[in-house]
Amino acid sequence: MTANVTPIRTPAPTPTPASPHTPAPDPAETPERFAQAPGDPYRYGVYLRPDPATCYAVTAVTAQLRAQYGIVSAGAFPPHATLVGSRHITAPVEEIVAAVTRGLADVSAFTVHNAGAQRQGVGMVYDVHHLADGITPNPDFVDLAARVDKAVAPLQTPAPNHTMHDFDRDTFRAHLSLVSHDMYVRPDLGDEVEEYVKGLPVAVPGTFPGDRVTLYRTRSDDWAGRWWQTLTWDHVHTWRLAR
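Structure (tokenized):
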């Protein structure tokens, strides 16, 4: 990886919105893990954005799942492959952008291979983790995630109402979510949803350039519970990786 990173757009600095007022919790009724931390109810994620055709395929599938089953968790996000997700950061946005920019220095774009819709855990994804052989993890994808994790880790702060997992190269799996956390609530729909997704006439490219990295700020009223029911997000910044 030797090329430079060219930013697409840097938004005008905006202050982080203040958290809505919340009455003081009653210790007898509210576990400590549900307490608000500075910066709540916001989290930050850094994602690899697919090409427009792949984004279209993801949104077509998630829209159909919402229309047919009321499944909304994957579709609550913009189409993306997570590099680091849901990080609790109270630093100014400008510091986050600067840190990721440094982390992406000299990183080049690479080819992402899409193995199609597959089951992963309780949900379904487009599997984009491997090279063309479908077996070997894509080293450029893993390295990119490791760089971004290293860049944002010093900015993270603890959040009592959200468990943050350390980055692990061996367990990282690049994917584009099609259906996810809803299935913890409705595991009985797993086989039916898989059949439905695979029956949709949605074409998806077999490859796309991994050349867009994006920063999003997400918000939920219930990070410790069914966060996808109240999730909203704001696009913050995009970086373009040169070839």
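Helices lie at 52-69, 93-103, 139-152, 182-185, 190-199. The radius of gyration is 18 Å.
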